[in-house]
């Protein structure tokens, strides 16, 4: 019977509200307008940051106001959305209030949740009201986006690239002012004497570093390429004929000195040929490198390097107990005129990366005397190129031997292999053939590094007197505004989505209630006229309204709206 009565009451209420005349324009207008304003603020925030992105940020005041503006817009967008979700919460709260009786303690939490997050601790209240909980939680969590989105604009050092022309100091091979060797001239011919002492500094330094010496420093990052013609060597396994000469003479030398030759580098000179013998290698001039330039070969000037690294470790010491068969090999390094394509990366931090690709054009002999004066480009070019060959030979000439008596130490008189362990020809795990090939590449790279260092590097604090120009890319770091739109759009998109769901729930509540409500005091006063409440709060202390709420009041049920017209009145309940 009571069920029929309740259904009749609800039907009457639905009829009363079917006109939707009790929906005041303010609630739907506030929800819709605030949502739209929030979305507009988000769009304006994105547009502002997009405009600033990539702009120079070297003005401290501009940086401050950019961040302040972003924070203000984020606050406004959150504020607008929270207003809309708050109104939606009020509408859905009255859906719940109409639906069933509520304890006064629950009503306290429901009416105050938007102003006091501690009310979420009343878990029992919110588990029973999931939609209302969702609306309240979204309203409280919307400010998260206002924390994230201002940080999507930051000031960072950004690499700025610009192209231009760079003037590069160099030491040309074809000018008299940059002679790398001593010469004599009678006005008609020029005779080569020896490499200049000024070549020793870059040569020794290059060997020690095993890299191209630093070029002129730059306050910004520079990248440029230079092309030129210069000397280079090509190293390969020596021919069988030359190797047979050397091997026969080397065995004689080893027997003469009771030693084993691990390494021997020399330039061809008088006595080298089919009849060479052990005395050739025992010559003091050959061992200390007094004659470092091949002036007897008819074609390319060359260096020979005899290797017998079997049974020797990477430090040149004999491997204890080694009983394998020695398997010597020999390299020949020939002088060529080559085209260089050099690549330079000069960092503002001082770091530099210099590399080059070479293309061998034609072999070059070493000439003792040639027609012309040092002022002529062909003469200075020839003399300078063979001076670099002599500098290279000075580094790799000489023997490394050890006595057959294990109590005697290894003797090393080779500059390069004594100063830089990376250039040492022996490496564990490599066969003699592999170590010979490795040494060939090492020598080619060493010669190339000496050539580049001499031509472009700062030597003894001095740069080249000549200059050349090159297209260059200059990379500088500039303080710029950097914007992360993806992060901003995701943060705002999530906020907007949940706010839209809340607004739609608010619209649904309006249609379901047939009226609009607020949680204001006046609204509460208008729906709480009942004698039962007066009897419930008869105690003088309770009339003060002070905290805490007495337990008997907090647990009392209140029936509101359509639910208030149902039966079952009691002294502990109030309904209208």
From TrEMBL:
Keywords (A to Z) from UniProt: Membrane, Transmembrane, Transmembrane helix
> Source organism's superkingdom?
Eukaryota
Query: Does Glycosyltransferase show up as a keyword for this record?
Result: no
Q: Does the keyword Transmembrane apply?
A: yes
- Protein name as it appears in the record: Transmembrane protein
User: What residue intervals traverse the membrane?
Assistant: 25-44, 65-89, 134-153, 489-511
